[in-house]
Amino acid sequence: MGKVKCIISYDGTDYAGFQIQPKLRTVQGELEKALTKIHKGEPIRIHASGRTDAGVHAFGQVIHFESSLQLQEENWLNALNTFLPSDLVVKKVELVDDSFHARYSAVEKEYRYYVLNTKKKDIFKRHYIYQFPYPLVIEHMQEACRYLEGKHDFTTFSSAKATIKGSKIRTLRQVTCEIKDNKIEFIFKGDGFLYNMVRIIVGTLLDIGQGKRDPEDIKHLLSQKDRRLLGKTAPPQGLYLWNVVYNKNEKEW
């Protein structure tokens, strides 16, 4: 048996999320369906760096699976993309050793979130960016980002529906937001993320940008460890799993 690593991208609009679910269209379901065809009916289970929710996109999601087939990397790439739907593509394939695991071997993940800050809606971008029509003070949001960087307990910024047990301490190496031509790009790089963490943070930063909160409130919110102190979670369509790092020296895909 050999282990195969794939870097994939997908448009999450028409998926019920990454994880396989009965009678629903999922990213995992489409990948495993394609692999079953390649393996002549043999079911193949994949493992991902992490799950994404319904409507969330990925630019650089990573999966791995084990196979008895002896294919070259380019042949794996072509075979998979032949059987995958048009909203899901394998961008790169690597043959890796048995110690690799798409989830447990990751040392850093990067998420990006996009907001279109204009009063007029762009109907063609509605599935790929959060259209937010209210005025924002970007400088206040940027100040708040700095309070989020570093090692913290992010319980306040985790969904109350989260099933994870154990520590909710995570380290964020980079939290930034920049605006260009009314498009705001948020970048989050860290050693791990809790359920809905990025979307809850974005919702909070937008509140700060509107003056509903002060940037310094972040410190108090982190210390309280209470999701009920915050408002709405930002919607899924602006969120992208951008990159997963397995070696600190490797370049971004």
CATH H-level homologous superfamily name of the largest domain = Pseudouridine synthase I, catalytic domain, C-terminal subdomain
Strand content: 25-35%
Major beta-sheet overview: 10 strands, mixed
Number of domains: 2
Quantity of strands, as a count: 10
Order of helices and strands: EHEEHEEEHEEEHHE
List low-pLDDT spans: none
Helix content: 10-25%
Named CATH architecture of the largest domain: 2-Layer Sandwich
Helical segment count:
5
Structural class: alpha+beta
Distance between the termini: 27 Å
- CATH level 3 topology of the largest domain: Alpha-Beta Plaits
How much is the average pLDDT? 95
CATH class of the largest domain: Alpha Beta
Short overview:
It contains 5 helices and 10 strands; from the N terminus they run βαββαβββαβββααβ. The chain has 253 residues and is α+β, with helices and mostly antiparallel strands.
Descriptive account of the structure:
- This protein has helices at 27-38, 73-83, 138-148, 197-209, 217-224; strands spanning 2-10, 47-48, 57-67, 88-96, 108-116, 130-131, 150-153, 169-180, 183-190, 239-245.
- By secondary structure, it is an alpha+beta fold.
- 22% of the residues lie in helices and 29% in strands.
- The protein is globular.
- The protein contains 5 helices and 10 strands.
- It has 2 domains: 2-96, 2-Layer Sandwich (Alpha-Beta Plaits); 108-245, Alpha-Beta Plaits.
- A hairpin with an 8-residue loop joins β2 (47-48) and β3 (57-67).
- The longest helix is centred in the last third of the chain and has 13 residues, at 197-209.
